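Thread: Newbie trying to understand structure tokens

Hi all, I'm a second-year student working on a class project, and my supervisor (Dr. K.) asked me to get a predicted structure for one chain before our next meeting. I've only ever worked with sequences, so writing a 3D structure as a token string is new to me. If someone could post the tokens and maybe explain what I'm looking at, I'd be very grateful. Here's the chain:
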Amino acid sequence: MAAYCRVSTDQEEQLLSYENQVNYYTNYISENPLYEYAGTYADEGISGTNTKKRDEFNRMIADCRSGKIDMIITKSISRFARNTLDCLNYVRELKDLGIGIIFEKENINTLDAKGEVLLTILSSLAQDESRFISENCTWGIRRRFETGKHKMSTKRFLGYDTDETGKLVINNRTQEPIVVRLYQEFMDGKTTDYIKRIFEREGVKNWDGGTKWQSTTLMSMLENEKYKGDALLQKSYTVDFLTKKRTQNKGEIQMFYVEDDHDAIISKRIWECVQLEIKRRKKYLEEHGTNSYSHRPESNPFASKIICGDCNKVFARKGWRSSTGVDRKVWQCSERYKVKGVMGCANRHVEEKTMIKAYLMAWNVLVENREDFMEQWTEQLQSENLLEGYRAEKFIEYTDGAEPLTEMDTDFMLKTLDHIRVFEDGTLLVVFLDGTEIECKNEEE
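---
Reply by user tm_fold:
Sure, no problem. This is what the structure looks like when written as tokens:
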């Protein structure tokens, strides 16, 4: 015979109950000459609404299946399972194996003829009790949210720890600089996919001390309001108290926004600029018919940044070899041969070296004529659009005392270039992130 025990929480008084139950059933079975003690299986501080996370329960069922147990004694139905379906399925499976369960409180032996009928009724009552407890807990949580009170785990939340009261406090030593760098790298024109590769190459550690990163994780960090010191509560909610399944809250239930909830890692201005930049990039993808804002700029810096002046779609890079055996990198409209063998967009192709030359020439025009652009940038600094003001501030900084560029610097290009528009007549329009447009003429044949 075996015993199964479970308590619902890990509070001190419940832990005492846990120890008492284990001792009680161990002695109860061991001291009865009619029983042979097969062991006590006890889960500590685990919810009874399902059996997935109840290791001892699952070990007991496995031992039953392997013939090590022929009878189980437990305190009550609610200690065994609060999910009616789970409870009945296990009772029936064990009954088919000739194994009975004695529920002390309800005085039920599942091998008796009347046992299963009464068990079905009582199990349903236990499940309703679980529902009632779940609803009460949910009610309490939402009332705390209304007053701005909340607790959250920082195990998977880079940049913060929690103090003894559960309040978020900045992890200054190692994690804060990573968050600050992420926001800056993004504002410097890099994608989360590119930042991911940089972090992994440099061995930057994530929340669990590993060096593997996900671009989706980085994007969720960029969108998380907690980094600016605020807290949006009830972003998700439990839809099934039995399975504990959670889903994203898309307005089904009320959310609560708490400003200045804790110390910020990112200023509100920069956080808002990042949100505007995220929206700008999404709009850019839609306007130019591409699914990537940038693709491996380490080897392909102009990816998605060359735009057709005729059809507004992105250019794609091709590798061509001349009759003399010289390899060339050439850009042409992605719509040109979208259907194989059928000419689409008729806009001209452009050599990559010409794009580089145009970018350098246009940037040097900004540097050499800085004072002519200062009025525009100064006006933009006062713009209600925070991103526009941020770009103006950066261009003032980048051009201050700058020497003309003589060679391509990919990271600097990402900070400054929005796109280059190619026209059939050979005109190249270099458009910078501050909105400045510089026209160049492509003289290549």
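A couple of things are worth pointing out once you decode it. The CA atoms of residues 190 and 393 lie 19 Å apart. Residues 8-15 have pLDDT under 50 and may be disordered. Feel free to ask follow-ups in this thread.
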